[in-house]
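Before relying on records like the one below, remember that each one covers exactly one chain. Contacts with other chains, cofactors or solvent are not represented anywhere in the record.
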Amino acid sequence: MCSAKSFDPAAVNFNQYDTDTISRQDKKHFLHPWQIFDTPADEGALPIAAANGLYLYDTDGKKYLDAVGGLWCTNIGLGREEMADAIADQVRQMAYASPFVDMTNIPAATLAAKLAEIAPGDIDHVIFSCGGSTAIDSAYRLIQYYQNCRGKHSKKHVISRDNSYHGTTYAAMSIGGKAGDHPPEFDFISDTIHHISCPNYYRAEPGVSEADFLAAMLKELEDKILDVGPDNVAAFFAEPVFGAGGVIIPPAGYHRGTWEICQKYDVLYVSDEVVTAFGRLGHWFASKEVFDFQPDIITTAKGLTSGYLPLGATLYSKRIHNVISETGHGRYFAHGYTYAGHPVACAAALKNIEIMEREGLLNHVHQIGPYFQQQLKTLLDLPIVGDVRGVGLMACVEFVKDKTTKERFAEELDIGKWISNRADSLGLIVRPIVNLNVMSPPLIITRDQVDFIVATLRASVLACIEDLREHGHF
């Protein structure tokens, strides 16, 4: 798909790297996100030295197709020279400018206008931050500020979903609903943040129709609002498609239905598009175009710069801005970041959007996405593949011990990791999440690369099945 000039990993002298030393330094000094302390000391992290397009190269020069796209983020592919040039040019001209109060910079102002142009409906203002988690925190603070400006001082509670992921800062992780992300050693906001059920029809009670399941999910949201009190509920946070929760797509009509309930009770709808925006589903944003609802706030990051530099954005409606900016109250918005609207990060985002427009990547996702989903579904004939689900270039394979009952393997087996380790050995990177393998490849993926992913994942699952049988687990 991509024919633009890019970095050539063949120019790298991999002999210059001492993998053992790097691994030792990493284990001794680098506390990784989601570090598992029970991992045996001899198991180190995979040291990546170079990247180009969809491919990563470790310090020994071994090549891997990265079907995870970094962490849902390397949308235009890695190693693009024009991205490097845009970033370097901005560094030379102006590496930093304060965004506070009455200063701005050209890339930040230009990017804010571009985001307002491509955002749905009346969303036309932006709070820049450093990533998806801080974008969620900014949304959380904005909601409190907005409700106070309206005189709705009790309207501070928010509702989210079980198994959702909204980031890792204090408020963002509290809003998230993944049980595995709430270990007892951490504290979380629990008095004003509430969770309702995950709308995963695959895990519905046997015999329940999808229509009845949908009705129950919508009723649960309305009941929760009524239980907490409409005068107390400020906002509902929802990913259009669950990301780290396992690429769960709610039943058709769920998002429109939840939006209508929020409208009924004056509850703001926050659409967490950190993953789904910037082409992942074939649109700049998925809320309106794919799921037919108009959020009040959209959070985004990841594909905004395709991972070249950290940048997050909280986009919000003109209606919210008109309330908070009303003059005559001595108000000021005491929230923001040193690196908000960082000129180099914003320059990267503008070049990233330009590349996506020029190369027609949104349309490419419409073409390649169905093929990706169709080919992955061929894995359903394997005896431990219970479900294959996805949309656009988001996908998940769920592994089960019994396909009829949908019984999971024991969690301590970490079946998803078992399979991903096999895939690593064959030159494919997928993301393991307990009993799942999750994928979100760069948008530039080709049919041949899709075929490689599916064939390699099949071989990895088959090898794992043999391992399971040998150890008496299946």
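Residues 58 and 156 are 47 Å apart (CA to CA).
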